[in-house]
Design a protein that fits this description.
The chain is of the alpha/beta class. 40% of the residues lie in helices and 12% in strands. A five-stranded parallel sheet has the order 4-5-3-2-6, sandwiched between helices. Strands 7-10-1-11 form a four-stranded mixed sheet. A two-stranded antiparallel ribbon has the order 8-9. The model has no long low-confidence stretch (mean pLDDT 97). Keywords: Hydrolase, Magnesium, Membrane, Metal-binding, Phosphoprotein, Transmembrane, Transmembrane helix, Zinc.
Length: 452
């Protein structure tokens, strides 16, 4: 999420809620600086190297999960705090084994080794269990492709193991759906929450009766970690990621992007409320690992002089993500595809009532892969610009808060202005007074790639 994502979401919120132009996001009120995001081998980072910069305080190569650029495991802030007596948690909206949560809780050579990452997260590596609470998607990486009855579908593990059963036998409390989430007892750690086989649906598509929101998941995590640590001299560390902001950027889907950013903003507000009401010294740092999509809030769509306009009302009419609508198209088995596309997808799904013949012809010609075409229909009409389906090298914002004045002064001293991403990781280490080198020395025998 880059600065343009905030501009997009802020303007959309003002339009959607009929607010004055002076109304801003909660994040806006806590902006303290910006961060440069390059990795050790590219000016444009991927999420793995970006997260490793925060978790280890070191630059590494694209794809590295808690690994330095010499292919050696590097201790993370989460591991160091756990060994110091803190409780720890991860809450995300992608797979819990995805790059960002993985970079704090595991060590593998490449981010695609998600089955191995799942093992590390449950404690099957030299440090033992270091995460007390895991909430996200990615159930598929925790059970075998031979297991199908209990979870409703087959997993992706090839080693025949059912890590969910193993976790239950090791004392984990398992949350696998909305009902068990709602009924879960606050503070009963460790908690393994796998709320979807893959990623949790985009906010614009999310069915509240099936998937809790990021804000709900975060509130539960905060209350659980807080209760479980109330009699401890140490507190807790919680990582929260609005993970699918990135996916909406990859897909160049502006209507989905704004809902994801606003969902994260609401979550940030919930975290602030917790900190403000706590008598315990609390530090909040929020940033991004990179920008995605090369987003621009404004776009020249003809050769004539640009008219300096952007149309949030176009995004307001969209009811579902391009991902969701693509799935509907690919699963359609009726005998009137053209009317289905015009009525269910274009009109009801995207809110478009002025589709051009050439646009419809292009959609039909690419009916096996319509995702980007659907999103482009919205981007053109709203005059939203994109430069890539990948990441960009744009600097990203840093936000900070503490309920203690002297701590907030430390944040400003160390992170204001323009910083390198590893400075955020180093600041967390300095603030908590942990010895990352000591953790690194304990990781020498870590299995960092799958054994054939």
């Amino acid at each position: 999420m880059g600065p343009a994502s905030l501009s997009l979401a802020r303007s959309f919120k003002q339009y959607h809620n009929n607010l004055n132009y002076s109304d801003i996001l909660t994040l806006d009120k806590h902006l303290i600086g910006s961060s440069r995001t390059r990795s050790s081998n590219s000016l444009i980072t991927d999420s793995a190297a970006g997260a490793t910069a925060f978790s280890c305080g070191e630059k590494s190569y694209n794809g590295a999960i808690g690994i330095d650029d010499q292919f050696k495991p590097c201790g993370t802030i989460l591991e160091a705090l756990k060994l110091k007596g803190y409780l720890t948690g991860l809450v995300v909206t992608t797979r819990i084994t995805d790059a960002t949560p993985a970079s704090f809780s595991s060590h593998v050579k490449y981010r695609s080794f998600e089955d191995l990452i799942a093992l590390h997260q449950l404690g099957h590596y030299p440090l033992g269990r270091v995460v007390d609470l895991l909430i996200g998607g990615g159930r598929t990486h925790f059970y075998s492709n031979e297991s199908s009855i209990e979870y409703g579908s087959k997993g992706s593990r090839l080693d025949g193991r059912n890590l969910i059963e193993e976790a239950l036998n090791e004392g984990w409390n398992y949350i696998g759906n909305r009902t068990s989430f709602d009924n879960a007892e606050i503070g009963q750690l460790p908690i393994l929450g796998l709320l979807d086989d893959f990623d949790i649906p985009f906010e614009i598509d999310r069915n509240d009766s099936i998937h809790p929101s990021l804000k709900e998941q975060t509130k539960f995590a905060l209350e659980s970690l807080n209760k479980a640590s109330e009699n401890s001299n140490q507190g807790f560390f919680l990582l929260v990621e609005g993970s699918r902001i990135d996916h909406a950027g990859h897909y160049n889907d502006p209507a989905t992007q704004v809902r994801e950013v606003l969902s994260f903003d609401e979550t940030f507000q919930e975290i602030l409320k917790f900190a403000e009401n706590s008598s315990v010294e609390t530090l909040i740092i929020s940033t991004s690992d990179h920008e995605t999509g090369g987003l621009a809030v404004g776009r020249q769509i003809s050769a004539k002089y640009p008219d300096y306009k952007w149309f949030p009302e176009i995004l307001n009419n969209v009811k579902h993500s391009g991902e969701y609508l693509t799935s509907k198209i690919l699963n359609y088995n009726g005998d009137d595809l053209e009317n289905f596309l015009k009525d269910e997808i274009i009109l009801k799904g995207l809110g478009i009532n002025d589709l051009k013949d050439e646009e419809f012809s292009k959609l039909l010609q690419n009916i096996e892969s319509p995702h980007y075409i659907l999103n482009e229909l919205i981007s053109i009409r709203s005059q939203t610009g994109w430069s890539t389906h990948g990441h960009s090298a744009v600097d990203v914002n840093i936000y900070g808060y503490s309920n203690k004045k002297d701590v907030f002064t430390q944040i400003l001293t160390k992170l204001n202005g323009n910083r390198e991403n590893i400075e955020i990781g180093k600041f967390l280490q300095d603030y908590t007074n942990v010895d990352i080198d000591e953790i690194t020395s304990k990781l020498v025998n870590t299995t960092i790639e799958p054994r054939n």
